[in-house]
Amino acid sequence: MDTIYAMSSAQGKAGVSIIRISGPAAWNACRVICGDIPPVRLASVRSLHTAGGMALDQALVLTFAKGASFTGEESVEFQMHGSIAVVTAVLTTLGDVGDLRSAEPGEFTRRAFENGCLDLAQVEGLADLIDSETEAQRKQALRVFSGELGVRADGWRRKLIRAAALMEATIDFADEDVPVDVSPEVSALTGEVIADLNREIVGTHASERIRAGFEVAIVGAPNVGKSTLLNTLAGRAAAITSDIAGTTRDVIEVRMDIAGLPVTLLDTAGLRDTDDKVEALGVDLARRRASAADLRVFLLEPDNGLPFPAEPDDIVLTAKGDVQSGEFPSISGHTGQGVDELIGRISQLLSTRASNAGIATRARHREAMVRGVAALGTAVELLKGGDDTADLAAEELRSAVRALDSLVGRVDIENVLDEIFVSFCIGK
User: Fold this and answer.
1) d(C-alpha 158, C-alpha 140), whole Å
2) How many whole angstroms separate alpha carbon 146 and alpha carbon 400?
3) Domain 213-354 class?
4) Which fold has domain 3-103?
5) Do 121 and 407 contact (CB within 8 A), yes or no?
6) CATH superfamily of 126-209+362-421
7) Burial letters for 35-54: b for 16+ Cβ neighbours within 10 Å, e otherwise?
8) Which position among 70, 213, 290, 303 has the lowest Cβ density within 10 Å, counted as fewest Cβ atoms?
9) Helical H runs in 75-218?
10) pTM (2 decimals)?
């Protein structure tokens, strides 16, 4: 396997920058650029220089033995001064060392996967951890990266292999008297796995929202104060405000952190009948985006009703609370009246939903578990046929095992590997 190298810290000037080397020639590259190889996993300060002896920088150098590094290969890390010129010079020097090449995006992590240091779910958790912007995202990604999903998948796998083995025994000794009826244990094992999977499938919807972000749409008639409220919540002029009705034509999005959760606020076009074709397109888009959002905040004038039915958790408020009142709690983006209460209510509602999140976080995870449940459901029905359908039931159990194996990358994952690893930066 080639030896690869790349900058693993962020691009640009910094206090410290890190260059990582991984592969069979990593230690030789360290010897060329440092003069020797520091003790394994013991940080040492070394002078870096070119093959011709020209000084480059002083760096903290760490070496990792095969099987004890992130990638599972012999690895070296240079923690150097974060000058663009220093980093460029070191990378250029490494490029001149034989048997080394620049890493591709995600190649270090892919090697960790291929060498058995991470399963596929952990790889996805690492990607989410790097991309995390809020506390909830960090916690969720760390759970996946720690291998929790893989541990659960292994538990389900063991139960199903046990059930399949019992069924195989029934098939193998079909012409003999089997002393024990295995169907009760097989039914119990499959029932436990089905229940666990169904709980996780339900929890994936909340997990995906934590990973991608919740959407909260501000909805109401034209000139009711939606854009003003959005700007107040965002703390900046994110949307144009005007006394002219219909100013907002498109959906304005603002990303926020509310109670540690990622939330995208949507300022939508005012909902009304209009002959203006452009405004009508905006109104149609507003209705569609508001309907698809996780939560809606309706701003109403005292004499106006809801533009469309509200969902149970939706928030209905009286707009422009500084100059008018109504049957619903009042809010004013202009003065800030009721804004803290609104943020608290949004936080409470979304935190409740987030509390139902499972450990599986992606559509791929949900689809694999759905396939597993479907196969197990078929197996349960076939079990009712006794010995005549035992071989078919055993095959469905094996299908369920294969579906769950795809969660952690044991089978059927070649078509998703490139998509997953290309999302990483080159140094990861």
Assistant:
1) 25
2) 24
3) alpha beta
4) Gyrase A; domain 2 (3.30.1360)
5) yes
6) tRNA modification GTPase MnmE domain 2 (1.20.120.430)
7) eebbeeeeeeebebbbeeee
8) 303
9) 84-96, 107-114, 120-131, 135-145, 148-172, 183-212
10) 0.79
